[in-house]
Amino acid sequence: MPSYEFFIGLRYTRAKRRNHFISFISLTSLLGITLGMTALITVMSVMNGFQKEVRTRILGVASHIQINGINETLPDWQKIANQAVQHPQVEAAAPFVSAQGMVSFNQAVRGVLVRGILPDTENNVADFSKMMVDGELNDLEPGMFGIVVGKELARTLGASKGDKIILISPQGQMTPVGILPRLKQFTITGIFEAGHFEYDSSLALIHMADAQKLYRMKDGSVSGVRLKLHDLFQAPKVVRELALIISSYTYISDWTSQHANYFRAIQIEKRMLSLILALIIAVAAFNIVSTLVMAVTDKQPDIAILRTLGASPRSIMKIFIVQGTLIGAFGTILGVIGGTLLAFNVDSVIALIEYLFTVQFLSNEVYYISKIPSDPHLTDIVAVAIISFGLTILATIYPSYRASKVNPSEALRYE
After folding, report:
1. Chain-centre distance of CA 265, in angstroms?
2. How far, in Å, CA of 365 to CA of 378, rounded?
3. E-assigned strand segments in 79-127
4. For the ranges 230-234, 271-275, 403-407, which has the lowest average pLDDT?
5. Sorting pLDDT into bands at 50, 70 and 90, what band is 293?
6. Of the residues 224, 258, 292, which one is the last residue of a structural domain?
7. Please, which residues bridge with residue 175 across strands?
8. Angle in degrees, 0-180, between the axes of helices 235-245 and 77-85, rounded to the nearest 10
9. Owning domain of residue 230
10. Residue 40 class from Cβ within 10 Å (0-12 exposed, 13-18 middle, 19+ buried)?
């Protein structure tokens, strides 16, 4: 059963004070906590959304885990792939040939990363089939020397599906007039759009058999094997376990190390924005100090009467802790509700703002991510609520302690 301290603290919170300024500060403290939490939860959700969007686009082209041979040559790739798929976390495996090259079309020349793939197995570890904007990935056939290029690369070259481009290999060949680069004509059979400039502007896909011929890979060798996992966040752990399973000398890396700069930058930005917005909550929470200090001054006669009736200093302290905690609790609850609702509907809110003010925050012509994504995490919401409520409780300690030290005789002297 709640104690009398709780009921008195609740009464002080609900009561219409003689000093309206105290009520105003209490209201601003509550609103400050609510708005601060709403902003913090929304920003953290949006940053999670951007991180998820970037990760999805990168891993749609890259792989969760990549096994490379020594000197970029892996002759027994079938054996390594079979060993890798024995791991319970590995969903699929696909071989690849990776090499540098240059493409030429109508006097335009661009450097590219050439990746030789098997279309059937590549679909198991990447999402190229979903990214195709013209043509099909399965149009790559051995011996036909077809090529699939990124949308930005095709735009830069001024090429389209059906055009014939020249692929230049850096591996030269000896001729009577000296070393000449190896040239091969390829036909564009498809164009993909990954939504990531690095891949759209510099990646070209050809059939693995054509890549082995062009780059003189002996005995059916490949550059490595790409793996897809059931849970991509287990990649670092799986890498360590695969190192014990695979018998050949290989170099194994995962997406967290291959693209560490992207995700580290987003994580740092998220932390800094969270810290800045947390200061808003801290300022609002410590406004409770002002509220309670003035409330203690205003309620000194009441405190004195309670003391003469037998209330202990600890009980007086509890009364004002309850009063401040209730303000913080209401602000925290409203902040969680407001932040969660806004985080789950931020796209609709942004669309409404864009419509009302005829602005566009993320233009399709400038940004690859044209919509503001949101990915609320329960752990983030709980953490923000705990921190906010903890700050409000911390803010009640000093004024409550001060109330417990009020001298009854001094407080009633002029009453």
Report:
1. 10
2. 34
3. 90-105, 108-117
4. 403-407
5. confident
6. 258
7. 178
8. 120
9. 63-258
10. buried
